[in-house]
Each structure stands twice: as structure tokens, then as C-alpha cells.
Specification:
The protein is α+β, with helices and mostly antiparallel strands. It has one domain: Sandwich (Jelly Rolls). The protein is built from 2 helices and 12 strands. Strands 1, 4, 5, 7, 10 and 12 form a 6-stranded antiparallel beta sheet that branches. The longest helix is centred in the N-terminal third of the chain and has 16 residues. The two termini are 13 Å apart.
Length: 221
């Protein structure tokens, strides 16, 4: 009977532990970026070693205007096709990555982006289709320090990309994919795009969960 109780306790522990953990969370409230970076995440299990950066072929100006319900975000101008935002973290011991973020552009900033991933920082693979970034206008509502607008929020489940599981470093890019601006015209040099509230999360991989469960079982005995 005691053994059955112990096994049940392990199963409960496994079920409880199988909730997503935040590996990295960039709020840009501490980093307040004014360059291409990299900038460490403000929160998350791997905050100190998780980096956000910008990549531009031209001489972009980076700034930290109001976020989506917060005082700061990560913004840049001078966008061209291939320019990107990049976020890195370790997924060692974790699987089933989810990537969430807020993003907007000025009227003449870029509209069309794709999400790409990599495990070596050199070879990137596109995940899913091109997505559209809304202009920072009302409606739906302009970004400000107090009121978030969910219309600017994105979440992508990357669990099907097993290459991102239990990896020393994963790279996720939001890449400018066209010269079309957020207002349907052409991207201008002064046009900006900004990101905020970036979160990389994942589930403890089965091996890690098993070790947690076995540890609990041993302690119970």
C-alpha cells in the first residue's frame, strides 16, 4: 500500500512539473536598449545567458519607446528585407518550445515578417507562413506605458520542431520579409518596428521529469 502511495505521489509530481517554464523573458524595462545589442533577458530561468539583438544591413538607429503596456520596448528604423530581431536561449533539459511576443510598426515601418529558427546561429529555417505586423495606430490602439493591446500579440508553438529540444542554444529570428510598409505603401528609412514582452518557454523534457519523480520516490522510501 505504501509503495502504491509513493508511485501515485510520483505521478502527481510528474503531472505538476509538466507545466511550461519561462526560460527567458525580455521586458526591456531594465536593458532599455539603444544599440543592436545583445541584451540579456530581464527574467526567466536562463535570463543571464539569453540574449536579444537586432540585425540590420544598414545603419539602423535603435531606441526604447513605450512598449505594449509598459514604459519601454526595443525599436529600430532603416529596415530592409532580411533585417531581423533575434532571441537566444538554452533549452537544455526542456522540450516543446513556445515563443510569444508583441510587435508593431510605424505607418512606414515594415509590415511582413517571418519567424525563423536555428540551433547553430548560421543556418535558419522558416516556421509557418509570413505574418503581418499592424501599424501602431488607433484602432486597435497605440502602444503606451499603461494599457496593453492584445491585437499586437503573437504566440507560436514550436513543439513540432524537435531540433529545438534540449539544445545548448536556440536562435529565434523575426525577419523582415518584404518592402511593404504597415500602411500598405513602401518601407521608409525612418519607418520603425518595435518588439516587447518577448517570452521563450518550454516543458521539462521526459528524462528530467523522470529524475524528479525518482528522486521523490527515493526520498519517500
Amino acid at each position: 500500500m505504501k509503495k502504491a502511495v509513493c508511485v501515485l505521489g510520483v505521478l502527481v509530481l510528474l503531472a505538476t512539473a509538466a507545466s511550461a517554464a519561462t526560460l527567458a523573458n525580455w521586458t526591456f524595462e531594465v536593458s532599455q536598449p539603444a544599440t543592436a545589442g545583445p541584451f540579456a533577458a530581464e527574467a526567466g530561468l536562463n535570463a543571464a545567458t539569453s540574449m536579444a539583438s537586432g540585425g540590420h544591413a544598414g545603419a539602423a538607429t535603435y531606441s526604447t519607446p513605450a512598449g505594449n503596456g509598459s514604459a519601454h520596448s526595443y525599436s529600430a528604423n532603416t529596415w530592409a528585407v532580411g533585417d531581423y530581431w533575434q532571441f537566444t536561449t538554452s533549452t537544455t533539459g526542456y522540450a516543446g518550445v513556445t515563443f510569444a511576443w508583441d510587435q508593431t510598426s510605424s505607418n512606414t515601418g515594415p509590415r511582413d515578417f517571418v519567424l525563423q529558427y536555428s540551433t547553430n546561429g548560421t543556418t535558419f529555417t522558416q516556421f509557418g507562413a509570413q505574418y503581418i505586423v499592424l501599424a501602431n495606430v488607433a484602432p486597435p490602439g497605440t502602444w503606451n506605458a499603461t494599457t496593453p493591446h492584445l491585437e499586437y500579440s503573437f504566440t507560436v508553438n514550436l513543439a513540432s520542431v524537435t531540433a529545438l529540444d534540449n539544445a545548448p542554444t536556440v536562435y529565434i529570428r523575426l525577419r523582415d520579409n518584404s518592402t511593404v510598409s504597415a500602411n500598405g505603401g513602401t518601407v521608409a528609412v525612418a519607418g520603425t518596428d518595435r518588439v516587447d514582452n518577448v517570452v521563450i518557454s518550454a516543458l521539462p523534457e521526459p528524462a528530467s521529469l523522470l529524475l524528479l519523480g525518482l528522486g521523490a520516490l527515493i526520498r519517500r522510501r
